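As the next step, I wrote out a protein sequence along with its fold in token form, included below for the reader:
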Amino acid sequence: MTLSKLTLISILSLLPLTLAQDQCNLLPLRSNIEFPLKTYIPHTNTTTNTTICDKYAPKNMTQYQWIIQIINLAFTGDFPPPANGTYQSQGILNPNAYYIDPCEVRTSINLVPYFNGTYRSNNRANSAGEHVGTAINFLDGGSIPALRSNIPAWSTSSNQYGMMVGFYNFFSSILGCSDASIPTYTGPPTQTHIHRFMDLPAVSIHYFIHSIVDAATTIGGMPGADTVTHLGDSISIGIALDNVFNKRCSPAKQVVPNSVAMPQDMCADNATCATWQYGGNCTFYDTLSGFGVMPTLTGPGGANYTCVPAGANYTCVPPNL
């Protein structure tokens, strides 16, 4: 498979950023990621004082509506056919997705078990106050059909509603939406804490990030001479997300306003996760209980089944059998 023209243009426009790079990682490594993200001028390797949200949110909708469209599209994968090439993502909630890296390695991707309660992968405190991996169905509010209606969920009391609103508020913050009516992100300021029990490999995070980038490219595209600038801005979102959240030992970072710098790395697989090259804290991540440990599975119906991988599926044995 050849890289799409969109991807090639993006890479060429970002060559000045390529300080260091994993061989098969599309996104260059930068040490100076700052939030909220500002727009980027590719050929000069400089940023402006205008945030991405303030620049690209169209006049015929609110900034929050624009964010909702991007995030929902990333989850559903309903991308229109591109003019040239293909998108990297088929949607975060596509159980039969795949990711092809620049080395032409194709990897099957299925992030759905993290969202539908199959894995005990969500960080929650038990009755003793200990943080443990917990199975939660975050697709209980209509799943993809609800997202296709440009809403977070059918029910405001669902887990899906809370999760999606959290995504909207988080990305409104890091993309620099200036609309004061947008709710403040109130979730944990550390993504390491949120993803502690997920044991995510690098390729899964790459795929999630590319889903956001593809959605931003699709929705925020500008015609004519602005196209390359827009592609640079879209891919710079991916660079920021990858560098801050997908690098082992990455230093503590303040991601949302009015919070302190905290650990943000989600990538727990030592075999596949690239290591931050500008000085970080490996000891913290290496000694964090549950981080880098495969989550257990709940089995069909959420019962306490014992499950083991069997190809793309699982063989599950019910308790007391």
User: Anything to note?
Assistant: Residues 13 and 43 are 6 Å apart (CA to CA). Residues 227-245 form the longest helix (19 residues). DSSP finds ten helices and eight strands in the chain. The chain has one domain: 5-317.
